[in-house]
Amino acid sequence: MTNYFRTYMGRQIHPLNPSPDEISIFDIARSLSHLCRFVGHTKAFYSVAQHSVHVSRLVPPEDGLWGLLHDASEAYLCDIPAPIKADPQMTAYRIAEGRLMVAICQRFGLRPEMPRSVMIADKAMLATEFRDVTTATDIRWIKEECGTVPVPNLWIEPLPPRAARHLFLNRYVELTA
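The structure assignment produced for this chain is given below.
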């Protein structure tokens, strides 16, 4: 059994011991555009890629790339719902996720600590997503769950994977040009 897998672009990635040169923005975009938020418990397919673009637009320009890539480790590990990920038995997963984020940060020239603005924007998007793409309707519950209210004047229209991938890659070009 090998300790790597092949990505969509044909690269080998060692998810438990990643190297920055194994990371590809095209693999990240492809994978995140096919991963549904909320483990698929949504009214319509809504991708992690589209979520990431929204987060990148809510932060100051200097944190935009961090916002776009804040969930990039999920392209190589998938995501686990927060209540499960926080369990002490999931320490190995959190360590692997941390290693991947270090490699991703090195690959894209980001400082290794997630900026506070990204954490805040991620929570704001979570609240907005609860309102727009899940069956949650109680704004009071959403505020308690997320610690914030949905983003005013932002209404999510879920995109299919191909459109979300293009949106993600276009945003990457905007941020790195």
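Interim note for the steering committee: The domain at 13-176 is CATH 1.10.3210.10 (Hypothetical protein af1432). The beta strands are 5-6, 12-13.
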